[in-house]
């Protein structure tokens, strides 16, 4: 399994969780089970990269579900920050933390040599639940199409979080997406029709571009007060030519 970096998907080497917990066979601890599942994913990912066989791909997906269920375990919420960071380092999982420290997002991707790698995001709510953030807010879909890599809070609005993430959309193509979520009763849910461009309301805002020599810096969303600023590109999606403003509007707020 590899981590989704700014532009490239890089291989993540396995590290030890501690001197006594190395994810070896028979390790009964949660960290040991998580690392064992991660190592199984890596094993079949390497086989799939060499064989391109469906059964190897299916094995990656099966072990990823085991990996997800372990990370959703109530035991995981009992790990302190140091232990959680060590476990993330051992598995390539990215941890994002909100400024108020009430929301953590665990994110990772699999099958990164495919055109659109499956991504997974787990929300851990402080004193609340651990839950998989489904694709497009649809609970029937397993794993969204982006890997969330940052959390921003809406100024002056408690419990509202802007989640930003990215993924490949084709060879050398990167797609970035932003969505709005709210914390309510120790759970997280997606807010719909919250981005307004002056004409239309949208559930999400996204842009895509092709990596090339013309693109001198990484394009990204910006948030100013209650405004979301989204980059605009030329027709070839090789050069940023402007910015589009979206008002962040939430009913009843």
Q: Could you walk me through the main structural features you see in this protein, from its secondary elements to its overall organization?
A:
The chain is α+β, with helices and mostly antiparallel strands and 253 residues long. It contains 3 helices and 16 strands. The strands form 4 sheets. Strands 7, 8, 9, 10 and 13 form a 5-stranded antiparallel β-sheet that branches. The chain has a 5-stranded antiparallel β-sheet with strand order 12-11-16-15-14, with no helix packed on it. It has a 4-stranded antiparallel β-sheet with strand order 3-4-5-6, with helices on one face. Strand 5 and strand 6 (130-132) form a beta hairpin. Helix 1 (30-51) packs antiparallel against helix 2 (54-71). The radius of gyration is 19 Å and the shape is globular. The model is unreliable at 1-26 and 136-144 (pLDDT under 50).
């Amino acid at each position: 399994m590899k981590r989704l970096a700014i532009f490239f998907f890089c291989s993540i080497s396995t590290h030890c969780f501690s001197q006594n917990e190395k994810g070896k066979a028979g390790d009964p601890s949660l960290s040991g089970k998580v690392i064992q599942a991660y190592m199984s994913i890596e094993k079949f990912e390497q086989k799939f990269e060499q064989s391109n066989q469906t059964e190897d791909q299916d094995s990656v997906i099966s072990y990823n579900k085991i990996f997800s269920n372990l990370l959703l375990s109530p035991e995981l919420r009992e790990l302190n920050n140091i232990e959680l960071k060590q476990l993330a380092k051992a598995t390539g999982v990215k941890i994002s933390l909100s400024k108020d420290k009430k929301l953590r997002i665990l994110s990772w991707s699999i099958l990164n040599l495919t055109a659109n790698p499956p991504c997974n995001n787990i929300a851990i709510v402080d004193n609340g639940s651990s839950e998989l953030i489904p694709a497009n807010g649809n609970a029937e879909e397993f794993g969204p199409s982006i890997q969330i890599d940052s959390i921003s809070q809406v100024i002056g609005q408690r419990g509202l979080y802007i989640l930003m993430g990215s993924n490949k959309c084709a060879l050398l193509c990167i797609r970035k997406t932003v969505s709005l979520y709210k914390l309510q009763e120790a759970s997280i849910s997606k807010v719909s029709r919250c981005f307004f461009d002056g004409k239309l309301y949208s559930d999400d805002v996204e842009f895509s571009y092709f990596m090339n020599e013309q693109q001198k810096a990484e394009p990204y969303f910006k948030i100013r007060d209650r405004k979301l600023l989204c980059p605009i590109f030329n027709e070839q999606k090789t050069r940023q030519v402007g910015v589009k403003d979206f008002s962040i509007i939430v009913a009843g707020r």
